[in-house]
What we know:
Elements: E1 5-6, E2 13-16, E3 21-26, E4 38-42, E5 45-53, E6 58-67, E7 72-76, E8 88-92, E9 95-102, E10 108-116, E11 121-124, E12 137-141, E13 144-148, E14 158-162, E15 167-170, E16 183-187, E17 190-194, E18 197-198, E19 201-202, E20 206-210, E21 215-219, E22 231-235, E23 238-242, E24 254-258, E25 263-267, E26 279-283, E27 286-290, E28 303-308, E29 320-325, E30 330-335, E31 340-346, E32 352-357, E33 364-368, E34 374-382, E35 386-394
Antiparallel strand pairs: 1-29, 2-35, 3-28, 4-5, 5-6, 6-7, 8-9, 9-10, 10-11, 12-13, 13-14, 14-15, 16-17, 17-20, 18-19, 20-21, 22-23, 23-24, 24-25, 26-27, 27-28, 29-30, 30-33, 31-32, 31-34, 34-35
Amino acid sequence: MERVxxxxxxxxxxxxxxxQYVWTQKASLPAPPRYExxxxxxxxxxxxxxxxxxxxxAVYNDFWEYDQNTNTWSQRANxxxxxxxxxxxxxxxxxxxxxTGWTINNTPLNDFYEYNPVNNLWxxxxxxxxxxxxxxxxxxxxxxxxxxxxxxxxQKDLYEYxxxxxxxxxxxxxxxxxxxxxxxxxxxxxxxxxCGASGVINYNDLWSYNPQQDxxxxxxxxxxxxxxxxxxxxxxxxxxxxxxxxxxxxxxxFYGYNPNLNSWTPIIxxxxxxxxxxxxxxxxxxxxxxxxxxxxANHYNDFWExxxxTTVSSFNQVFHNVFFNNFNSTLNIETKDAHVVxxxxxxxxxxxxxxxxxxxxxxxxxxxxxxxxxxxxxDLVFFNNVSIKGKFExx
Length: 395
């Protein structure tokens, strides 16, 4: 009996090939320029707070709310405790959280606070249980927050915060090199950690953390120069990563990481001045980036929006079935009322290993593939440049 392995066939994403992005300058933060602030979003609002301006030896505790609809900033209640920079933050279930950091007197911090935007109030929460530090990284994965890495001596630890219990627990240490000033984002229940620095060594590696398994996995490296003090946010289910510094040059390049394909794609370069130690967040599938400093110690308070301006076709749903037949080593593609013009096959490293152009207008294609056992990804490109991505297994 012919043995056919039917794919999971996930409609992983319906996207337009060659998506186009544009940067637009928005209202500047109406506060002193700074770097190493904290940024996150809650609902339809974005928030920046704390930070430092080394030119005037100033460290801040102010906190600001950005309204996407009106392109305006409003000052909110100051962050409690000492003024700080190099702090970590995230948001969970309508609340914001800020902790750790470095004071003007060079004192590392481990205090931790919760912000409620409804009543504009901060509440003292359980102190971070790791060593007091600065240049740590914070992110939310699902209903839990995470802070780790940073400097109090270089660190590679990770801690989970439960906002309901107001408690911290230590998780598995990062298996790579200890570091500070890295960036992070979360997609689909996993956290992603990218770049950073240890002393004068910069990194461009990318790792995922699975909180269900408390495990780490190394992924495809960030495709540009090793760096630290870069930023990230999520758009179109991609982790958008860019800017940063390698101790010599500031960067303005941005790349999108696709976790389904384990691959990076260039995004349009930032059109403001190259910089590092800025901050970023996303609201309603748009990215926002600002603040920071550059190689010449210029500090910034400008603010920019990254939007996807690709015209999305009304081709919203396509009936399709894809499976790999291990008996005759063919990828079988069936579609209905749609013309596939190109099929691209990728390995787990995101490298294109096969490409087929389908000139005939038909609903069934059988493509011969000589592949080793493993997981592979496909990208079906249709007549109107819409693509559907998925994965299949060869046994």
